[in-house]
Amino acid sequence: MGNTIAWSLVGFVFGATAATAIAIAAPHLLRSMRKSLWRSSASSRFDPVLFRLDFTSLGQFQLGSWSINHPLQSFELKIADPPVQTWCDERLLEAKRLEIDREGGPAWFLTDYEVDDNESPQSQMFRATFSPSTFRDFQAISHLLREDHDLASELLARASEQNGLKSLVRGSPKTAFGVQVNVVSGQETFLAFRRSMTVGEHQGLWMLGCGETMSESDLWDSTQRSDQSSFTPFCQRALREEVGLEPSDYGEIHISWLGLNLLQGSNLLVAHVESILSESQIEMRISQCPGTHEMTELDWYSFRNGQIKDLIQEMKLSDVASKIRTKPLPRHWVPGQLLVLQELLRVHPALMADRN
C-alpha cells in the first residue's frame, strides 16, 4: 500500500513537472512551427523579383518610395493657391468641366514637393504643398487625358526630361490626391472589390483594398497630430469609411509609394495594413460601414504563385483595348492596379516576417 502511494506521488510530481515544461515551451514551439510553415510555403508564394514592369510607360511616376525597414518617418505640408497650370489649353479643361453633370465635393492636390531619394535621414521625410480643387476638376483632366492621346504622350515625354516631374507637379491643373490602402486579413489574403455603378469614376471595375480622396479635414488632421505621420489620419479615414475597420483592428499603416499618375491626371499614395480579423469578420464590418454603397461585390486573393500570376495577367489585359482582346476577361480592373499590386508584393514578406 505504502509503495503504491509513493509511486503515485512520484508519478504525480513527474506529470506535473512535464506539464509545466510543456506549458513553458509551447508558445516558443508554436512560434517556431509558424515560422517553419511560413518558410516551407515560401516556394509556393509569388516572388516579387519576377514582377518587373516599367510603370513610367503606364504613366505612373514615383515621387517617393519607402519600405518597412526604411519607412516614411514624418511629413510636412503647407497650403497655397493653385498654380497656373501648364499641361494644356485651359479652354479644353473648361469644356470638359461643362460636360460633367455633378460638381462633386471639394478636393486637394499636390502642387510642390521635396524628397531626398538617397539613403539619408531626409529621405524619410516628405515635404509637400497642397492646393484646393473639386472632384469635377479631377474628372475634367482625367477625361481629357483619356480621350486626347497626343496630350497624354506629350506629358509622358515631359515627365522623362530632367526635372520634368517637378515641373509637371508645379504646373499641375486642379485635380485630386487619392490614397489606396491594401488590406491583408488575418488569414493572409488580400481584399479586392468591384465598384458600384453609382460612383463618380470607374463604375463596375475592380480595385484592390480601399480608396479615398483627400479632403480638407484630412489636411487639418494631418497638422494636428504630431505623434504620427500626417498621412496616417487620411489612411485611417479610408479604412473606416470604406471597410469599417478601426485602428484597433489592424497594425501599423505602412506607406510605400507616392507618385503622379499622368494617364489619370492625379496624385496617388499607396499604403498597406494587416488586420487581425478574418475574412468573414472584415466582410461583416464592410456590410455595416458608410461606404458599402460604393461596392457591389468583393473577393479575397491569396499570395500563392499561380493566383498572383493569373491576377497580373488579368490586370495587364484590362489595360488593352477590348477590340484587341481575343476573349472577354472575367474581371476588368481600375487602371493603375498593377502598381498597387506590385507594392503589396514588395511589402508583404516584411509584413509576414514581422508578424511571425
Walk me through this protein's architecture.
With 356 residues, the chain is α+β, with helices and mostly antiparallel strands. The protein has 2 domains: 39 residues; 308 residues, Nucleoside Triphosphate Pyrophosphohydrolase. 40% of the residues lie in helices and 22% in strands. The protein has 10 helices and 11 strands. The strands form 3 sheets. Strands 1-9-10-5-8 form a 5-stranded mixed β-sheet, with helices on both faces. A 3-stranded mixed β-sheet has the order 2-4-3. It has a 3-stranded antiparallel β-sheet with strand order 7-6-11. Strand 9 and strand 10 form a beta hairpin. Helix 6 crosses helix 7. The longest helix is centred in the first third of the chain and has 39 residues. It starts with a helix and ends with a helix. About 11% of the residues have low confidence.
Mean pLDDT: 81
Fraction of helical residues? 40-55%
Low-confidence region ranges: 4-41
CATH second-level architecture of the largest domain: Alpha-Beta Complex
What is the molecular shape?
A: globular
> What percent strand?
15-25%
Number of E strands: 11
The end-to-end span amounts to 52 Å
* Tally of separate helices: 10
Instruction: Going across the biggest sheet, name each strand in turn.
Output: 1-9-10-5-8
What's the helix-strand series? HEEHEEHHHEEEEHHEEHEHH
In angstroms, what is the radius of gyration? 25 Å
Number of domains: 2
Secondary structure class reads alpha+beta
- Would you identify the CATH H-level superfamily of the largest domain? Nucleoside Triphosphate Pyrophosphohydrolase
